[in-house]
Each structure stands twice: as C-alpha cells, then as structure tokens.
Amino acid sequence: MDKVILDKLKSIVGTQNFLDSKEDKLVYSYDGTPVFRHLPEAVLFPENSDQISEILRLANQNQFNVVPRGAGTGLSGGSIPVDNSVVIVMTKWNRILEIDSSNLTAWVEPGVVTGIFQKEVEKIGLFYPPDPGSLTVCTLGGNVATNAGGLRGLKYGVTKNYILGVEMILPNGELLKSGGKNMKDAAGYNLKDFIIGSEGTLGIITKVLVKLIPKPSNSITLLIIFNKLVDAGKTVSDIIASHIVPSMMEFLDNTTINCVEDYAHIGLPRKSEAILLVEVDGRSSEVQEDAEIIRKIAIKNNAVALKGASDEAEANNLKTARRSAFSALARKMPTTILEDATVPRSELPVMIEKVTKAAKMFDVMIGNFGHAGDGNLHPTCLTDERDSKALDKAHKAFEYIFNEAIKLGGTITGEHGTGLSKKQFLESVAGPAGVDMMKKIKCAIDPNNILNPEKIFSISPKCEGILPLKREQIKNFNA
C-alpha cells in the first residue's frame, strides 16, 4: 500500500491508534481459525464514527480493503485480512451505554465482552441468554456479525433473537440506524436482519440495541453418562419429543471427555462413549417436574449414571468444563479444526454416526461435542497443518460431514459463520439463486467491494457482472 495512503490513515486515527510494525500486524493476521492467516497493511483503532467514515471514504477513493475485527475469536476466517487491506479493531468501543429496565433493553458498543455484559445485567435481575463458548473474551459486535449461538440456544435462541436495533457505518461512510425499542415494527424492509450474520461485509457496527428478559429463578443441572454413543443421541431425541425444552443440552463424545478431563480434572468418566450435560430452568415446580421426566428418559435409554449438581458452583463448574472443550482438544495436536455442522434435531443420532464414520473413513482423529438439543454439533479434527497429507485427509473428512449434513436437511454452519473456510459449500445450502441474491445485496451496498471482501462468497473487485447496468452504461454499450 502506498505510504501516502498509510500516512493519511495515521492522520485520521492518530499515531496512538495506528500500528504497522511487522510484529503488530502479525497479531492481527489470524483469528481462531487454523490454516488461514495474512498480514494486513496496517491496524487501526478508530475512536469515533467520523473516523470510521473517513477511513471508508478513503478506501473507496483509493481502492484498498477494510476488514472489521472484534476480539478475533471467530472460527470461520471471517476477520482474516486479505490483500491490500487494513484492519479496523473495535475492542476499545467497550461501553455499556444504557440498561433500560422499563423496556428490558440495553444499548451497547460493539466491543463489550459478552460475559461481562451478562454479569452486569444479572446484577439487576435481568438476563441476556446468548452464551458462545468464548463468552469470556468474545464481543457483542462480533456476536452480531456472526449470529453467534451458544449453550442456551435450544430454549432461548441465538443472537438474532435478542437484537432490536443496530447502528453501523456503511461502506460509503454513511451512518445507518435500523430498529429500536418497539417490540413491533413492520415499517419497510427489516434491515437489521441483513446485518446480523453478515460477517462485516455490509458495514461496521458502532452500536447494538439488545433485548433482555427476566432472569430465571431456578435451575437444575444434570450430568448423564452413557456407555454407548447411540443411547445419548436417542435420549436427546426423546427429550425433545416429550415437549420439554431444556435451557441447555450439551453432548461430549469419548475423545472430548478425555481431553476435557486432562485439562480440567473434574472427574468425568473416561471410559464412557458419551455424556450429556442438561439444564432446565424456570419456576421451581416446573423445573423439578422437567428434571424428573429427563431422568426417566435417560434411564430408559440405558444411562449408566445420572448426577445432579448440588449447588450453583458445581453447575457452573460443569458448564465451564463444557466450554473448555475446544481448548482441551487443542492441547492434543498442533492444529485443531473446529466446525459446526447442524441438522434438524430429529436427525442428530444419524449425524453423530456420520461424524464417527468420517473419522474412520479418512483415518483422522475427531472429537465431537456440541449443542445436541438444537442439532448443532462441533466435530473437531486434531491434526497438523505442517503435514499436507494429514491436512488433506482432514479437509476430505469435513467435506463428507458437510455433505451428509446437507442430505439430512442440515446446514454447513449453525453459529460460526461462512467466512473463508466454508464459502465453497454455500451454494449447496442456499442454492444458486440464493447466493446470487446475496451477491446483489452486497454489491448494491458496497459496489467497490472494499469491506471484508472474499468472505461468505467471492465476487470481482468492483462487482462487475453482478448489478444491472445503469442507463448511461446501456447507452454507451449500444453505441
């Protein structure tokens, strides 16, 4: 990138908010996704919306790319820099601007850490349910960008279910405000839903309005142990069929159990093929009744042991162990590829078997865990990216897993996003017409394709051939 442009960027954000040493750029060249990495030209920490607007206008004028970034915990390559790009980091935008108890809403900046926000609202008896595994470090802006899920997705839904409004800077530098505190709003297109899950390709989020709910008064957490994987899958299906909706229903296979136990030392049964971590919450009488029905279903499906957490501390210890699954598996091999194939809940037992088959078929080590209650599995391949043959086998295993998920009516990602790592599978899920419509939306908003290009799908630098020709272009063409 031209030094003149870099100097202009430095003047916009100030020397204290501009990094371009090789060491600094290396830190922002990757996210939580293995294999993908690329050095940016510079790293910027804008302090206000006007600075972001200036950066984007300069990018359009000089044809360089801008990649938005939160905490860098993404697992699909969504915040990886591309050629001729600068990274805009939003972690310093970390203020909770308002908690409105009357309307059960809160305005936050995009750099607010999810777990910190949850603790703040719980102090006043409110509840923000989405809880990604990385909640202690991930940011709410990143959660919106990827439509993040979490352990409580079965009962409470994912990020999109709690976003009422978004403010963002569009690729042309203009400010867009969408949504508000109204519980009903049918005025025009629902623009915020285009933004949620758009992975930083349509704008840079500067504010988020989230919905809050009252905090549940009671909960029971159960650890259920199985000698056979298939019994755990059948238990999940039977619990759902019984019309009970747990707040959490998490699954760990034997590989993951042993890695977590090596890491956390909480007494998980090393010889078991699978465990389920189930939590029900709500009013006391309902919670007790639901927990008893779940116990009976588990016993019917050959559970070898059931343990209820004795208090909140033990329940949190079990949930922390589940959230550590990725970290625990990552200690096993140099490279850890975590994915999130998702199927209809009724197909979960079949999908678990398909993941096991993929590991054997391609001779790779796969730990499988995830949000069993909503059909969102996290098959995790333990490999070494320095070994090209081993990495190729891992890619083939995941190609098989994604294709099998699609055959079962599933999708290639439930909560991580498409990013760089899964865009080759997008058309299999969305269809040619669906991908074409996405590209047209992108090009209408970002005709120069400067904002986080190459993510979700690939288009030409200036969207040639995507948008209809303008009237003057048609005249010139006919001439």
Layout of helices and strands:
Blueprint (H helix, E strand, L loop, with lengths): L2 H11 L4 E2 L2 H6 L14 E3 L4 H14 L2 E5 L15 E5 L6 E5 L4 E4 L5 H9 L3 E2 L12 H7 L6 H4 L6 E7 L5 E5 L11 H5 L8 E8 L1 E2 L3 E9 L2 H13 L6 E6 H11 L9 E9 L1 H17 L2 E6 L3 H12 L1 H6 L4 E4 L9 H14 L3 E7 L4 E8 L4 H20 L18 H20 L25 H8 L1
Parallel strand pairs: 2-4, 3-4
Antiparallel strand pairs: 1-2, 5-6, 6-10, 7-11, 8-9, 8-10, 12-14, 12-15, 13-14, 13-17, 16-18, 17-18
How would you describe the overall organization of this protein?
The chain has 16 helices and 18 strands. By secondary structure, the chain is an alpha+beta fold. It has 4 domains: 3-89, 2-Layer Sandwich (Uridine Diphospho-n-acetylenolpyruvylglucosamine Reductase, domain 2), CATH 3.30.43; 96-214, Uridine Diphospho-n-acetylenolpyruvylglucosamine Reductase, domain 3; 216-328, 2-Layer Sandwich (Alpha-Beta Plaits); 423-478, no CATH class. A 7-stranded antiparallel sheet has the order 15-12-14-13-17-18-16, sandwiched between helices. The two termini are 37 Å apart.
